[in-house]
């Protein structure tokens, strides 16, 4: 378990967390992605906000485009707390397995847009940008969160 250093600023915490992950890769606790230098986690488990954010990657935020750093920081999160650190999309998309869990009707529009890309013409939601390059993505939705999806078979 690697905890976030909350005794430093967000930028320092992101650097410390990156260092910790690098150590885990050196000691082979965490694999390296086959196609890039990112860590390859066995499983990344994500919640999704009603706005479609995952991790602390919010819609239209520049952190969504971060492609150099494994872990980045933000100081202007639209949700409290404003200062956060987050895995970047390249790390999430390097995982062997990614699970996104969403429950409740407040997630229905974002689930539709992320999974089917249909809700509006805006840019893709962060959750819709989760596309593991060689891993598996599984969504876990309750019936309310899945209520706007078409053509899906649901298990009980
Ligand atoms: O501070 C945050 O960014 C949120 O707490 C968050 O990331 C959360 O995981 C989702 O909003 C889904 O949460 P629920 O599944 O509990 O609705």
Automatic annotation (TrEMBL):
It catalyses: 6-phospho-D-glucono-1,5-lactone + H2O = 6-phospho-D-gluconate + H(+). GO terms for biological process: carbohydrate metabolic process; pentose-phosphate shunt. Residues 10-139 form the Glucosamine/galactosamine-6-phosphate isomerase domain. InterPro entries: 6-phosphogluconolactonase_DevB, 6PGL, Glc/Gal-6P_isomerase, NagB/RpiA_transferase-like. Signal peptide: none annotated. It is an enzyme of class 3 (hydrolase). Pfam families: Glucosamine_iso. It comes from the Eukaryota. One of its GO terms (molecular function) is 6-phosphogluconolactonase activity. Its EC number is 3.1.1.31. SUPFAM superfamilies: NagB/RpiA/CoA transferase-like. CDD domains: 6PGL. Pathway: Carbohydrate degradation; pentose phosphate pathway. Belongs to the glucosamine/galactosamine-6-phosphate isomerase family. 6-phosphogluconolactonase subfamily. This is Probable 6-phosphogluconolactonase. It comes from Kalanchoe fedtschenkoi.
